[in-house]
UniProtKB/TrEMBL annotation:
UniProt protein name: EamA domain-containing protein
Record's subcellular location: Membrane
Protein topology in the membrane: Multi-pass membrane protein
Organism (species): Oleidesulfovibrio alaskensis (strain ATCC BAA-1058 / DSM 17464 / G20)
A Gene Ontology cellular-component term: membrane
Occurrences of domain EamA (ranges): 12-146, 160-303
Family (UniProt): Belongs to the EamA transporter family.
Chief place where the protein resides: membrane
Amino acid sequence: MPQSRSAAAAPFALFIAVTLWGSSFVATKIGLRQLEPLSIVWLRQLVATLAILPFWLPAWLRHRHAATVRRSDTGLLLLLAFFQPCLYFVCESYALQLTTASQAGVVSAMMPLMVAVVAGAMLGEQVTRRMWGGFALSVTGVVWLTLASAPEESAPSPMLGNMLELAAMACGVGYTIACRKLGSTFSPVIITGVQILAGFLFFLPGAFMLPAGFTSMAAQALTTPGSDAAISLFAVGYLGLFVTLGAFALYNFGVSALSASKASAWINLVPVVSIVLGHLVLGETFSPYQAGGALLVLGGLYLCQRTPAPPRHGIMQVQKPQRAGALEKE
């Protein structure tokens, strides 16, 4: 796809990606009715692996045949997969057991700012005042959104939990920067496939935590589509096919087409989507205060993605030196 088309399609791809990530909270809650958390993580990696393998293998072989894969690129690709999903999922899973979802949401709002700072230092990306203003507005919206939410459960160790959530965000930063650097070397299909395969192997212990009657549970799901088992397994299948595979592929494409700073700004839309879908699907509360926070997040995203208009007299300013040079030559 030409670079101009990729840049135009990237915001749409990122919007779909964060919408899918936001829906993962609802799907995970449904899956937890029948399965353990680690089993859900492994099953979604299994579903995603089976789905992407027919596309990933030919893409990897074509890449190996067409270009020499440098050892440094392979190492960075493996580091990317270690950051996300492996280490990220571990840190965030334990963080949510120790702190509230609201506090974790506030901490997660730091990721776009962290990406902007690191991308400026490592990739030389320029962060404009307009983007800093959009980041600030978006973070304010996330803080407002999470503080307006009613606490879901007690936090036995919020300080440690928030530190683990911050570590998860640091992993997200490392993943985004690595993905941006590898975007010109590997296709989004190759990057996504490596992530999924690494996650499948890393979370393999989850296969041993499946319930004893999992086979009969799967059979019941096939014969009785409306049963609790069927709904939970459908949610896990959705997580594997659309969230793990679809969202990562779309986000990897978006990061490869836009700057890391602009792409990461979309992450702040995740809590907005999760709260709206939680209200629509699970009947959770969605107050006017939360709606106000959601509008701030959307406003911040608009500022981050908006491209400043070129100066009205930019063409004349460029032409004047050319005319002067031409007169001197004459």
